[in-house]
Design a protein that fits this description.
Number of strands: 19
Largest sheet: 9 strands, mixed
Structural class: alpha/beta
Strand content: 15-25%
Radius of gyration: 21 Å
Oligomer: single chain
Shape: globular
Number of helices: 16
């Protein structure tokens, strides 16, 4: 059913629009000095979000697109955590006070690779430098294969309220092809440990488009995962970019599903989850009825950030750790990616900012528009433009790509409102791209829209 549109729009490499502008627009013109100034400008009354990047794993999953380092020893992790502590102190020294925190997200790599006592020590340091309250949501990404009972207990004691478990696929053939062997039993054990430790909310990550993956194996994985009854699912398409991630060359491209097969897999997973009672959120998230994300979507308060769809409404995100990206009132910043270079910068008493982007008024307008499209599949272009002091004509007139999508029955445009038709929502990234002023301004590499 989707084949003509997939062939027409799905081959273009498009951003996931977890930010706007997207990372390829960042430049070295934004450095540590600018970041330092921006930190001081954070309104002291505003709540902020924190992202902490832990770039270590015990083994490499060949599909992975994250910045991570493989280590069998704990010492590199301990050394890194010392530097992370120092960065937290550097940021705090530049804020006007102890900022209130709405959300905390530990990403990786594998954040739970650290020892339980080190995790609790890190939580204590955050509590010393920032203000947490009962509404603060703390989330952590977990590899179920390495979650120990002691670490599960530490997560509960540390205040973690949401755990995101990497599942990807339970098909043993697919697992062998991506170098990630993980049984259903291992995953269930991790879920049980977290629930016993009183970590109340659990998310599962699934991936389609992996080598040897089929519609049948996607359905089987989804059904097995549903039995564990996580609160949410995130379902992503595998992005094969071996020129960017060298280890992806270990995946045999000849056994990767094509665009049509990927679309069929995504549809099959969606149908399986929805039959089990999960509500579809945006493009690729699913949640049980009553979940905060379902409520946010119904009320038009759903947001999108570097972790995907979220209920996090904080305007400031402080990124901590190697490669971490932050969003300040003035724009975006990213830390040095190699842990060694990051460590040298922080150890010298300097922030580790390597690049960033200064937001303009037009950027903010386009960001709002793209976020509403990605979250609601509908955007009041005229209203959003006017709210930022712009005329909608600059966005709607002579927009060749948008006109093509309208002619193809993907969108309706009436009274300055762009709406994506319900059965065409799989192409939403192509719709959002119509309002991206930078997409074709430089060579870029993104995952496929289909």
């Amino acid at each position: 059913m989707h084949q003509p549109l997939i062939e027409k729009y799905g081959e273009a490499r498009l951003p996931r629009y977890t930010s706007y502008p997207t990372a390829p627009a960042f430049s070295a013109s934004i450095g540590a000095g600018t970041y330092s100034d921006w930190i001081t400008e954070i309104p002291p009354q505003d709540k902020v979000s924190l992202y902490l990047h832990i770039p270590f794993c015990r083994s490499m999953c060949w599909y992975c697109g994250c910045h991570t380092t493989i280590t069998s020893r704990d010492q590199p992790i301990l050394d890194y955590l010392d530097v992370l502590h120092a960065e937290i102190d550097l940021v705090r020294a530049r804020t006007s006070g102890r900022l209130k925190v709405g959300h905390v997200h530990f990403g990786g790599g594998t954040p739970t690779i650290m020892q339980p006592e080190e995790f609790l020590r890190l939580i204590a340091l955050l509590g010393k430098n920032f203000v947490f309250d009962k509404t603060t949501e703390m989330a952590v990404e977990i590899d179920p294969r390495t979650l120990t009972p002691d670490m599960a207990v530490a997560l509960g004691e540390g205040g973690v309220r949401r755990a995101s478990l990497g599942v990807q696929s339970f098909d043993p053939i697919v697992q062998k092809a991506i170098n990630r062997i993980q049984s259903e039993e291992q995953t269930q054990t991790a879920v049980t440990r977290l629930r016993v430790a009183r970590v109340p909310r659990i998310n599962f990550d699934l991936i389609y488009g992996l080598p040897h993956q089929t519609v049948a194996s996607c359905i089987a994985t989804a059904k097995a995962a549903i039995k564990m009854r996580p609160d949410r699912f995130s379902v992503f398409g595998y992005a094969h970019i071996p020129s960017f991630k060298q280890h992806q060359k270990l995946i045999d491209e000849k056994v990767l599903p094509d665009a049509m097969a990927r679309a069929e897999q995504a549809d099959a997973i969606a149908a399986t989850l929805e039959r089990a009672g999960y509500i579809r959120i945006g493009l690729d998230h699913y949640a049980l009825p009553g979940d905060d994300m379902v409520i946010a979507q119904k009320s038009g308060r759903l947001h999108r950030n570097f972790q995907g769809y979220t209920t996090d409404a904080c305007q400031t995100l402080i990124g901590l750790g190697a490669s971490a990206i932050g969003r300040m009132p003035g724009g975006y910043v990213q830390n040095e990616v190699p842990p060694g270079i990051y460590a040298r910068q922080i150890s010298s008493g300097q922030l580790a900012t390597v690049k960033g982007y200064r937001l303009t008024t037009e950027d903010r307008m386009r960001a709002d528009l793209i976020e509403r499209l990605m979250c609601d599949f509908r955007a009041d272009v005229a209203g959003i433009a006017a709210g930022h002091g712009f005329d909608a004509a600059m966005l709607l007139e002579d927009n060749r790509q948008l006109s093509m999508l309208e002619d193809d029955g993907v969108v309706d445009i009436r009274d300055g409102i762009v709406s994506v038709k319900p059965d065409q929502r799989f192409i939403i990234r192509a719709v959002a791209a119509c309002f991206d002023a930078y997409l074709h301004s430089s060579g870029r590499t993104h995952s496929k829209a289909a």
